[in-house]
Amino acid sequence: MADKFCANCGELNAAENNFCSNCGAREFKDIPPRLAARLGTPSERAVTFPVRLSLGRVALVSVLSYGTYMIYWFYLTWKQLADETREDHYPVWHALSLLVPIYGFFRMHRHMAVIEELASNAGLWPSLSKGWAVLLWVIGSALWGASADKAGVGVAAVLSIVGVALITALNVWAQGSLNQYWEKVKGANLREARLGIGEVIFVLFGLLAWVGTLLPA
After folding, report:
1. Tell me, what's the pLDDT at 137?
2. Taking the complete model, does pTM exceed 0.85, yes or no?
3. Which of 63, 128, 145, 171 measures 20 to 30 Å from 54, CA to CA?
4. Concatenated DSSP letters of 16-56
């Protein structure tokens, strides 16, 4: 089967991909015959998969974004996992579900269960535990939300720091397990995902939140 170009960003994708490995778009276009001849057969050219996120990057963005990076991470990795599960994924709604009380916990469980199952099916010993992941999210998001209700700057700061630390630990833990999976199934074709505008927006929002939490009004 011939490889194909993403109609949105131009990334070269494997024929079996349902979503672009770079931007997540679902629209593709065929490689022009002349270009295909220059590129060679699919077996002769390497298709790269920009899906890996370094743990340092995940940790830094999680902290700077005041923990809100989890929402963007949910969106991004759910797009990436669509081709692995062979199921219909709706990454935007999936990410927004984290903001829904109670229901968000079930979506967190589902997200982590998919990573855990894929790692296990790939012959890896998954370090991620979906149960502990949900517990970290429950406690971290509770502290995260409680900090906004505290009048004292000191109390709000402590709650925020602990909450963000727990959410960051969860993000790094989950991405570490996912990276192991990507390294196993993508091998030499794996590369780092580009920094997205969404990450920049969440960091800017988070910095404003940190200023509002740590500095007296």
Report:
1. 95
2. no
3. 145
4. T-SS-TTT----EEEPPHHHHHHH--GGGSPPPEEEE--HH
